[in-house]
Amino acid sequence: MSLQDLLQGRMPRIFDRLRGGRDPSLRLGKGIPTIGVASGKGGTGKTFCTVNLGVLLAGERERVTVLDADLGLGNAHLLLGLRPTKNLQDFLEERSGLRELLQVSKYGVDVLPGGSGISRLCQLEDVEMRRLARSLSGELPRARTLLVDSAAGISPQTLKFLIAADLVLLVVTPEVTSLTDAYAMIKCLHLRGMESRIAVLVNRADDEGQALEAMHRVQEVAKRFLDLHVEGCGWVPEDPAVRGALASRIPIVVRAPHAPASRGLRLCAQRLEEMLIGLPARRTFPSRVPGRSASAFSETGGRGGRRRRTR
Amino acid sequence: MISGPIPPHPRLVVEGLLRFHRSRKQGEAAPPAEDPGLPVPSGADFLEEGLELFEQDLVLEEGLAIDFFGKDAGGAPVAVLASEEEEQDELPLRLLDLDAWFRRGRTLPRGLLAQACPALAKVELGHGLRFVLVAHSYESRFLERLQGLDALDLTVLEFGRLRVRGEGLWFLRALPPWDGDRDGRRPLPEGLADEDMRGLVARLMDRVHEIDPRPVIQGDRYHREIWLRGGVHFRVEVDGASVEIRIPEKGQHWILGDEGDIDRILDALLRVELEREALGVPSRDGDAEWESPRRKNGSLSTRSEDSGSGGTLGGRVHLSEEEMAAFFPD
């Protein structure tokens, strides 16, 4: 079965789910895994993590596609140094097909730009969503993994995208407001009957102890009140090198591969790989993520270097 | 029987806050809260933007007194009435009496009033009297009675107290439906009277809702603080018939004049959002400490959330007090 066949078989079902939320009959068999990246509140570094994890997950021959679902304020292309001339608005207004929109980067990640600064795109009509879904199923080029960079917060549109994903990756920061918002997102997805796996990545942590504490807090509350298992995907330390990478528009894992944030991201990507293997749609292509079996919480070098396990 | 600490009378808290407010403005050390001898300072922005109080314990006639009297940003007379729960039975009658007194006062020669009471010369009596009620808590029965007094211009504030870094702080919140945000999406300050300008601000907010369908809106009669997507913050300030829009983070401001200004403001807001996202700036860092206790109190649902009631996607999800408390183990 060709990759295109896999895509054609899988994508319509993904986006059927976009239309109406949960539908158990649409659990996916074969195809490409879809990871919905979300955050309860804005400013957690969700797009930064999406792009860098995409670079790490991309294989030698297989590419990762980032669908910038932060429609209206999408900026994933900015972090890859891409300058799209078209965006989803062109697609929605039928001036362009999806394939023409696809921005190919030199880092193995392609971006479907969401359309920065176009406020109308923040509220896609259902009919537009359906058209997007249909076109994605037919026009998405070869991709190993689809990363959906969703908008911050819990809008109906964000929920639709997340419910359609195989795995929801919540990017949080250690602040309690970020954790409570992330939990609210989890609760919201849970109430919608979402059955996909949910994982948490702690970004901008001072050290491993702080990251673990934040993650355990979310996991414990989700277990206690929702009886829901939330997985840990790892943590990324606060790192001054990030600012330079953002300014240069080069993913930090490429620009500064030995920076603490890059090390953290590599371990997170590795953990993500392990989680993807468990998905029905997962195939086993080699990736750029070193095949170590270490825990995402054991080797990341935080700025402070303090490594303790609180629990 | 176990009982908690007894809070001071709201009148004393207002006095203390007024003194603190004044000393902070003047860069002085805060006077002790129990110091009774200080005069009422002019600024009372903590109660409402632009509110000025210039008289304390103003007795209009036998049995008819106002705890704090002043004027709002539009010049309308304002009576601030502080009460304990046990005093609230008689408060509706007092409100009606005061309102009637001011209605009668409008017909009197201004010079005569000023001679009788200099404080009244500083306000525009033609605007009608506004009431700001302050208390630690209200009985539900009292609030129901207040809702029946819909001819009065009321703002109902409730004190809360929280501890930040070990230090106790008072805060005030307006109770619905007097909080200027009855349906969570009420962006127009009530103090904006000019119809054309109201239309322009309404169109601006329609566009803003495209960025964030559920912005967080706070404010009072003459201003609104609006947060979009959990981070981007701007202010709508009313000054007479004109409206100023400010983005404090960028130091930008516009006097709203035409549709072109709306485009420029939207563009600036989107730019701020893009910048924050690109740099990974955490949202509302400075507010984290006060926002969370409000949520903990159960008074605020999480932003842009969804209902658990099924049906279409959209709505809100509420976290219970137990859920919120689980994030605050200490």
Task: Summarize the structure in words.
The complex is a heterodimer of chains A (311) and B (330). Chain A has 311 residues and is of the alpha/beta class. Helices cover 41% and strands 14% of the residues of chain A. An eight-stranded mixed sheet of chain A has the order 3-4-2-5-1-6-7-8, sandwiched between helices. In chain A, helix 7 (176-191) links the parallel strand 6 (167-172) and strand 7 (197-205). The longest helix of chain A has 19 residues, at 208-226. With 330 residues, chain B is α+β, with helices and mostly antiparallel strands. In chain B, 31% of the residues lie in helices and 24% in strands. Chain B has helices at residues 10-25, 91-106, 110-116, 140-148, 195-211, 259-279, 288-296, 321-326; strands at residues 52-61, 64-71, 77-83, 130-135, 153-164, 167-174, 216-220, 223-228, 232-239, 242-247, 252-255. In chain B, a hairpin with a 5-residue loop joins strand 2 and strand 3 (77-83). The radius of gyration of chain B is 21 Å and the shape is globular. At the A-B interface, helix 6, helix 7, helix 8 and helix 9 of A face helix 5, helix 6, helix 7 and helix 8 of B.
Oligomer: heterodimer
Helix content of chain A: 40-55%
Alpha plus pi helix count of chain B:
8
- Structural class, from secondary structure content of chain A? alpha/beta
Q: Averaged pLDDT of chain B, please? A: 71
Largest β sheet strand count, sense and barrel closure of chain A? 8 strands, mixed
**What percent of residues of chain B adopt helix (DSSP H or I)?**
25-40%
- Poorly predicted sequence stretches spanning 5 or more consecutive residues of chain A: 1-30, 280-296, 298-311
How are strands sequenced across the largest beta sheet of chain A? 3-4-2-5-1-6-7-8
